[in-house]
């Protein structure tokens, strides 16, 4: 039997591994990076990204997201621990893994003097596995997919930031991918640009491509992702399905009443923490136990209760509960 080269064997191995939906698309174990200056950027990370998920990698600036992504993509070596992508160990498996991964890291590298279409033609020509005879069709399909067909003839330097991001995504999508890795894909975009990129991500994920995206925006992760991991200072705080993460935190108690001062007093007595008085409502962190007892106490005290309930917890509530601090990010 003919012997396989190391790269071919790796490639076959990785295909076999990822065709099994049980194999996580990304799995790290005790992954750690200490930079030369001594900075511990990523500290013992155990990350599991299920196949088919839209996975949000959430954390404030400086929490170690980009460093993790660079290790996953084989761009830097971990100090210790392991990272497996599509079933292969990185950076060793890079040659087999990277052709199956579309990445948009730190903004796309574009030639401003070339049109969007010509930029994509260049990207495609740089891929030795891309058949030149089908190049034009491939580029057109990628332009269509990201909604840039009408602007394809414009010079890239005339594109808005959102259009540049879409062009970067188009470049990542020239080949079929099992995994898309997007580092802060909406960073710097205006609200409209953000909406466009988010809906594009949802669309890309709907055909089963696993999407791993980093963000420092909690609501972005809530809107787009099925799963998330939360980082703070290089460490993983929590990971799982977004709905489960939020459900793990208790929501806020909301009492609607014209008697806000009296209501606040009764709620505090009833063990409600962080009581905040609004114009016609009082909110707070409900204590353990039956919320109906609090409602009864309000009524007994003569508070006119117009509304009483516990709002569904958000990912932000979960983050605050996990870290004991707000999700406060700069920039
Ligand atoms: N090349 C480097 N050499 C030394 N320290 C670094 C290097 N790159 C990043 N760091 C430090 O490692 C920590 C994690 O940085 P990293 O860029 O991974 O975080 P991040 O969550 O991606 O934040 P951001 O969104 O700001 O990029 C930070 O304290 C940063 O200053």
UniProtKB/TrEMBL annotation:
InterPro entries to which the protein is assigned, alphabetical: AAA+_ATPase, ABC_transporter-like_ATP-bd, ABC_transporter-like_CS, P-loop_NTPase
Homology family: Belongs to the ABC transporter superfamily.
Keywords: ATP-binding, Nucleotide-binding, Transport
Ranges for region Disordered: 1-20
Organism: Streptomyces glomeratus
Signal peptide extent: none
SUPFAM superfamilies (UniProt xref): P-loop containing nucleoside triphosphate hydrolases
The keyword Membrane appears for this protein: no
Residue stretches making up the ABC transporter domain: 26-258
Protein name: ABC transporter ATP-binding protein
Keyword ATP-binding assigned: yes
Record GO terms (molecular function): ATP binding
């Amino acid at each position: 039997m003919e012997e396989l080269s190391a790269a071919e064997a790796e490639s076959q191995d990785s295909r076999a591994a990822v065709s099994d939906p049980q194999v996580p698309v990304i799995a790290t174990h005790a992954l750690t990076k200490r930079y030369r200056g001594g900075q511990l950027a990523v500290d013992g990370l155990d990350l599991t990204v299920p196949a088919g998920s839209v996975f949000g990698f959430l954390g404030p600036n400086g929490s170690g997201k980009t460093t993790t992504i660079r290790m996953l993509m084989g761009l830097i070596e971990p100090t210790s621990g392991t990272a497996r992508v599509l079933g292969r160990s990185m950076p060793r498996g890079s040659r087999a893994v990277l052709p199956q991964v579309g990445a948009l890291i730190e903004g796309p590298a574009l030639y401003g003097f070339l049109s969007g279409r010509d930029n994509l033609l260049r990207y495609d020509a740089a891929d030795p596995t891309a058949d030149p005879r089908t190049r034009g069709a491939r580029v057109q399909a990628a332009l269509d997919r990201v909604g840039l067909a009408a602007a394809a003839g414009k010079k890239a330097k005339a594109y808005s930031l959102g259009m540049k991001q879409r062009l970067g995504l188009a470049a990542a999508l020239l080949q079929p991918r099992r995994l898309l890795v997007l580092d802060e894909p909406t960073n710097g975009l205006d609200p409209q640009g953000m909406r466009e990129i988010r809906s594009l991500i949802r669309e890309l994920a709907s055909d089963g491509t696993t999407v791993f995206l980093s963000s420092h925006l909690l609501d972005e992760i809530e809107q787009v992702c099925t799963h998330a991991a939360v980082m703070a200072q290089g460490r993983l705080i929590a990971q799982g399905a977004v709905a489960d993460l939020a459900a793990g935190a208790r929501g806020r108690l909301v009492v609607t009443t014209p008697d806000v001062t009296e209501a606040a007093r009764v709620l505090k007595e009833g063990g409600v923490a962080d009581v905040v008085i609004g114009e016609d409502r009082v909110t707070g962190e409900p204590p353990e136990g039956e919320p109906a007892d609090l409602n009864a106490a309000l009524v007994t005290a003569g508070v006119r209760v117009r509304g009483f309930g516990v709002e569904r917890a958000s990912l932000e509530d979960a983050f605050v509960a996990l870290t004991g601090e707000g999700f406060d990010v700069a920039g």
